[in-house]
Amino acid sequence: MLRYALKRLMSLLISLAVASVVIFAVIEVAPGDPASFMLGVNAQEDTLAALRAELGLDVSKVQRYFNWVGGMLVGDFGTSYTYRTPVSQMIADRLWVSLPLALYALTLSTLIAFPAGIYAAARRGKPGDLTVMGATQLGIAVPNFWFAMMLVLIFAINLRWFNAGGFAGWENGLWAGVHSLTLPAIALALPQAAILARVMRSSLLDVLGEDFMRTARAKGLSRRQALWRHGVRNALIPVLTIIGLQFSFLLAGSIIIEQVFYLPGLGRLVFQAISARDLIVVESVVMLLVFAVITVNFLVDLAYAAVDPRLRSRT
Amino acid sequence: MSLLQIENLSLTIHGADILKRVSLSIASGQIVAVTGESGSGKSMTALAVMQLLPNGADAAGAIQLEGKDLLNVPEAEMCALRGASIGMVFQEPMTALNPVKTIGDQVMETILIHKAMPRAQAQERAQEVLTRVGLPPDRFPLSRYPHELSGGQRQRVVIAMAIALRPKLLIADEPTTALDVTTQAQILELLKGLVTEYGMGLLMITHDLAVVADIADRIVVMRYGEVVESGATVDLMRNMQHPYTRMLFAASGHQVTLPASPAPSPLLEVRHVVRDYRLPRKRLFDTPGHHRAVNDVTFTLNRGERLGLVGESGCGKSTLTRSILGIDDVQAGEIRLDGEPVFSGHKPNPAVRRKMQVVFQDPYGSFNPRHRVFRLITEPFHLLEKPPTGSERQDRIAEMLTAVGLSPDDADKYIHEFSGGQRQRIAIARALMIRPDLILFDEAVSALDVSVRAQILDLLAELCATYDLTYLFISHDLSVVRTITDRVMVMQAGKIVEQGETEQVFSYPQHPYTRTLIEAAPILPDIGVTIENTLN
Lengths: 315, 536
Fold this sequence. Notes:
The complex is a heterodimer.
Chain A: H1 2-29, H2 34-39, H3 45-55, H4 61-73, H5 87-122, H6 127-141, H7 144-158, H8 174-208, H9 211-218, H10 223-252, H11 255-260, H12 266-275, H13 279-307, H14 309-313
Chain B: E1 4-13, E2 16-26, E3 31-35, H1 42-50, E4 57-65, E5 68-69, H2 75-81, E6 86-89, H3 103-114, H4 119-132, H5 151-163, E7 169-173, H6 181-198, E8 201-205, H7 209-215, E9 218-223, E10 226-232, H8 233-238, H9 243-252, E11 266-278, E12 290-302, E13 306-310, H10 317-324, E14 332-337, E15 340-341, E16 343-344, E17 347-348, H11 350-353, E18 356-359, H12 373-377, H13 390-403, H14 420-432, E19 438-442, H15 450-467, E20 471-475, H16 478-484, E21 487-492, E22 495-501, H17 502-507, H18 512-520, H19 531-535
Parallel strand pairs in B: 3-8, 3-9, 6-7, 7-8, 13-20, 13-21, 18-19, 19-20
Antiparallel strand pairs in B: 1-2, 1-4, 4-5, 9-10, 11-12, 11-14, 14-15, 16-17, 21-22
């Protein structure tokens, strides 16, 4: 198990190194000089040079790459070209919204999807299954911003249980933060839950057809006991894969939902940084997301091994 | 009173008749074998006793276990009976165990769901049972996972689960079909021992008549969901009433007469071939180890000769086949066909490749279901530089389909319209299409029912006469190899340990391993007489 984990960790580090080179290279070849963009077309040549030196743009590309990576390792992501504030601070502020939101949505989607998928699989072809499958069909088809608007209409405007938007901030207590993230989290979670429930169902149905399920029944386990004791854990592998992918998506892909609910999240930060050609911010956020995705995949790999002993012994 | 009494059991699944008025009975300490070909309903009979029938099944009649009619027992009570009063062993040991749970947990589960007892006590019981089936905890700790065991060992775990609570009735559905002959012999011995020791009744489902003859007290022969004949083993084998029973026994030991092979002139020459597989590194910067699957194999196959290759799973038969076909390169040695190397500079040699064809085991998996037969069987044409076209092509298709006993009209059909035996004929037609010098049959009749197998063997004998076939026949089934080959090689752990004239090797095996194999293979003992003599 330890060797498996170390191997996965190695591949994580290699992926990160490769990703950092690629991101740096791609953003470097993007046309446009941040200094002249910031100072406008009429800027003096010496002012530009001074600004380039200040931004660290006057050294070789290799040097800049190592400055960038070295800085990130100690938490220094550089200074935003447009806001002139440390990028690390900007990202940290946004991450305090986006990360809890993603985790919240993922938890909700798992809590909805697991029971729904297991319920549907256990009642394959019966009304319960058809109802759940119909609901998930709808969940996938309807865009989440529409869900978001409906949630606002019902729970914020009519019932007044929640605020229609904005983030209360964690400094006002845990409850205030969770409360203001609830509607966005639900809006994000529903489509994800619909996908996850379908994956759970089909994966479980595959497992239910396996020989060892029949063996379990022959031992005297009831249908339900066999499903819970032997089915669910075996069905988890594909489900874990999807959960990993969904988390990565939720972290940065929630830009529309952030807009609907006026949340200061990472998605909005990237959007603004791209519009303002604030390359250092874009670079840093992209690197952070890559880091998150790769780390999540690493955790999913560890989860695979926890679920399936065959992976532990295979090196 | 008998332990299990099945009376007039009829079964429909979604309206289709599966079983028709099946009756049989088993007494305690008795072994009853239900035999028949695929689709005869023998497995469904077993599942009906377990009440584990597929959805849409509707059973009528009576299944009495010690006077209790299982067809009328509520599901909750049935759960209490399964595992405790009736145990079941399945065919596929590789998939019958949950891969994510330890063998200890799985054996203990049978005990714990039926009997309230502390875990430690259940664990002790599990250890006892596993020891009884030949997996002592000092060598096979309870913490092992199924993937750490061989097929035979897994089957022992499945048996341990089934007998943990000493059920009165044990049902074994093809328990040894997926195992090697030597493992099969051990598992059969174990089952027989358990029946004697525990006084269980054993309902054994098997298609293998030699196994039946070896183990059963009574035989029940089924066809199309009906019992055609039943009786005590010795009586039934001495005096078969039903023509189907006679046909089954005759087909099981079916013999063919091959035409004489021509004077030896080498076609395939295999010289000191070594095939290694790389093993995963043990440590990060270790040099990876190797598994030698084929170890210094040398043999010659003469033109017009029919050569057999036998051995147990994992002995390197398939690896050798792949190398001969030019699918995998070898690490040392050389393979030549008609004087030309199969590999020229680590690349398969197309000139050699078009002189060889192969027929695989699985008649269901080896065809693309979306292609029509004419396209399937003309696939080998892509190996030719100038494949026949137009009417020549049509003639060849018609000729080959006729040669394998099908009709030229079958060319426009899809593969799902054919039975397993017909598919194997199509596979042979595909192999013959380019008139190869050499055909490899890789377990080509192993998946077929005995009656179909007999027909395919006849077909091969006919084709040998018409087309002067040269082939390498790879099989684990000794009785088939004995009749369909002139010479045979015995392979063990990557090496050819014995080769010679087929009859000579089977009658006077020299190598201890060959003797083990031949002794382990069950035979139809018409009171001590071997298969072929039963027929004459």
